Amino acid sequence: MRSKxxxxxxxxxxxxxxxxxxxxxxxxxxDAVNKQPVSYASIYFDxxxxxxxxxxxxxxxLSTKENYNKVKFSFIGYTxxxxxxxxxxxxxxxxxxxxxxxxxxxxVVSSRKREPYKNxxxxxxxxxxxxxxxxxxxxxxxxxxxxxxxxxxxIFSMSNITEKFxxxxxxxDFQFMFxxxxxxxxxxxxxxxxxxxxKLTTNYFRKSPEQSKTIVLAEKQVDFSSKYVDNKGIKAxxxxxxxDIDIYDNDINLMSNQFLSPIASNAPTFYRYxxxxxxxxxxxxxxxxxxxxxxxxxxxxxGRLYITMDGKxxxxxxxxxxxxxINLNFIRELTIDMDFExxxxxxxxxxxxxxxxxxxxxxxxxxxxxxxxxVNYKDYQFNIPLADxxxxxxxEVVLADATKRDDTYWEQNRLDALSKNQQSIYHNIDTLQNxxxxxxxxxxxTILFAGYKRLGPYELGPNGTxxxxxxxxxxxxxxxxxSTTKLSTTYFFENYAAYGFKDEKWKYFLSGTxxxxxxSIYAFPQHYIKLSFQRDTKIPGxxxxxxxxxxxxxxxxxxxxxxxxxxxxxxxxxxxxYENHFSYGLGFxxxxxxxxxxxxxxxxTNSGLKNVQSLSTSEFSVQLRFAPHETxxxxxxxxxxFTDNYPVFNLRYSAGIKGLFGGEYSYNNFLGSVKKRxxxxxxxxxxxxxxxxxxxxxxxxxxxxIHRANQSYANLFNSYNLMNFLExxxxxxxxxxxxxxxxxxxLNKIPLIKLLKWxxxxxxxxxxGGLRKENNxxxxxxxxxxxxxxxxASRTYTLSKTPYIEAGVGIGNIFKFVRIDAIxxxxxxxxxxxxxxxxxxxxxxxx
Length: 847
Fold this sequence. Notes:
Largest sheet: 18 strands, antiparallel
CATH superfamily of the largest domain: membrane protein fhac: a member of the omp85/tpsb transporter family
CATH class of the largest domain: Mainly Beta
Number of strands: 46
Number of helices: 10
Radius of gyration: 32 Å
Helix content: 10-25%
Structural class: mainly beta
Distance between the termini: 68 Å
C-alpha cells in the first residue's frame, strides 16, 4: 500500500509539473510569401475564447495555466494555421499564413497581391462611421445628470532590472524592495516599486448648465521625505501625465501630447480599419474591429474595439497601444485597456481603465520605469436630480479626514483590492529612506535638479547664479537663499548679496513675507503680504522666462552690451488667490534708477542737454489674473504652471504719483494679455499670446514701454530674439506671438529623416506700436534724449506705421532635448547693430 501511495503521489507530482505550470508562447505572425508582418492577426488556443492579437509588427505573446496544446492563427483573407505546443513551458512559435484561395484568385485577375485599402465600400469603415454617428448618445456625458464612485491607483516602478544591477553593493541593504512581475507585462520581470498613490472619489456631472464636482473621500500615497522630494509636486506631475481618458473624445490627452481617438469624427482619414472577428456568443453580438495608423509615426493608436450590434453601436471594450515608430520620447511601450458594462437601460458605461507605460531613454529593452494607472468605476446613477448646492464652491473638494483614513476604511471601500506586493510598497519606501546610501544620492539629486542646498530651515541657492559676468560689473559673485516651511509656515524670508569686481559695488536683496492663510507662500491658493528691498542691476527691456538674469548662461550675449541700470526697489505687495484660479494683487513700488555703462539720461532743456544722475518714481498698482482650470507643478518653494488648453488672462494697471516719496512723474500704465494653447490634433499645437498696453501722461523714455528684446543666444519665446536692448519704445502697442509645433507631422513622412524623430516648428512675432508727440523727445521738450552709440548713432527708436516682424523655422526634439531655430527679422534693418538673421537654441525635455 505504501509503495502504491508513493507511486500515485509521484505520478501526481509529475502531472502537476507538466500541466499545472504556466504556458507562455510568443512569436511573430508573417505572410508566407513576402515574409511581411500580418498586423492584428488573431491568436487563440484552439477551441477556446482565450486569445490575443498580434501588434502592428506581427508580434504577440499569449499565456495560460490551462492544459491547452494547440494554438490557432487566423486573419481575414488567410487560411487558418494550427500549431502544436507543449503545455507548461515558455516557447517561441512563429506562424506563416498563406492567402486563401479566394484572395489568390483575385490576385490573378487584378494582377496584384491584395486589394489596396480604401474607405469606399469598406464594411469596417461603414461600421466605424456608425460608431461615430452614435457617439453623442453613448458617452456617459450624454446623460442630463451623472454620479459615480471612482477608485484610482497609480504605481511607478523601476523596471527591467537585471540580476547584476539588483546585486550591486549599493542595494545590499534593501533587497526587500525588489519584486517579481509577470514576464508578459510591460516593464519586465524584476521591478523596484518607488511610488504608489490611491484615491477614492465621488463624482457628479450636470449637462445644463454644464458643471462637475469631485469629492475626495480618501487619499494616500507613498510619503517620501520632504527634505528631498516634494510629494505634492509628484502628485501634480503624475496627474498631468496620466489624465482621464474618454474614448468618445475626438482627441485624447496623454503624456502631454494629443492623440486622435480611433472614433474621432475625422478618424477614417488617419486610420485603417479591419473587421477581424464576430463574437456571436455575446449578448448583444459584438464585432471586433482592429485599427492601425495610415502613417505609423503620427500621434495615433493601434488596437481593437468591440462594437455592440444592437443598433446602438457602443464600445463594449477597447484596447489601445502605441507602436515603436511613433514620434514620442522616452516611452518604449504603452497600452490602454478599457472595459464597459451595460446597465438596465442598455447604456454602456466605463467600469475599468488600465494604462501601463514603459519609460526609457532608448527604445531598446533595458532598465527604465513603468507607470501604471488603474481606475475602477462603480455605482453609476443617470438622470437623477442633483441639488444646486452640490456644485457650489471649487470643482474638487477634499474632505477634512480624507488623508487620515485607516487601513480598515481602505479595505472596506476600495473597489479594487491591493495585491500583497502593492501593499508592501508603503512600508518598503519608509524603510528605504533610512538607508544611508539612499540619503546621500537624494541629497546630490536635490542640489542638481532643484538648484538649492538644504541647510535645516534654510536653502542655499540657486546654484546657477553664483557666478556671472557683464561689461559693467565684470566678474560677479552672488550668494543667497530662502527660508522653508521648516522654519515657519507663516513667515518666509529670501535674501542674497552680490559683488561686482569691475564696478566694485555691492548688490543685495531682502524680502519678508507673511502668509495670511498660514501656508507656504507658493501653495495654492496664495494669500500673503510681502515687503522687499532690492539694490541690483538690470538691463532695460530684458525679460527672462526661465533664466535668472544674473546667471552664467545669460552672461553670453551678442552685439553691444554696455547698457545697464542700477536700481533701488522698495516694494509692498499683497496677493489674494481664489479656488477658481482668479487672483488679484495690490502693490506699491518706489523705484530709483541710475544709468550705467553706455546708457546716459540726458534731459533736453531750453539751455541744452542736462545730465540726469537718477530717476525716481512712486507708483501704486492693481493686477488681475484669471486662469480657468489651471494646472501646475506645485512644490514647497516653487510653482510652475503647465501650458494648457485654457486661456490665461492678465490685466495690470499702475499709476505714478508725482511728489509722493520723491516721485517725479504722474502717469497711468495699462497692460493686458491673453495666452492660450490651441490644440490642432494631428497638426500639433500652437501657443498663442496676444498683448497690448497704453501709457498716458508725459514721461521720459525709461517710463515708456521698453519692448522686450533678447541679445542672448537662447530662444526666448516672449521676447523679440533679433531686437536689441532698448531698440524700441512705445506709449501704445499691440503684439502677437505664435509658436506652432507640428510634432513631426511632416518630417515623420520623409524616409530616413523620420528615423531622427525631429519635430518641425514655425514661429511668428509681430509688434505694432507708436509714440505720441508729447512723449517723443524729437518733438517735445523736457524729455530725455534717446540713447546714442559712441559714434553718435541713435540706439532707440519708435515704431512707425510698419510693425516690427520676425519669424522663424525650427527643428525640435534633437537628441530629445534640443531645439534650434533659424530666425529672420523682416524690417527696420537700417538700424545700427541689427542682425537680419540669427540662430537661437533652447532646451526642453518633453514626451
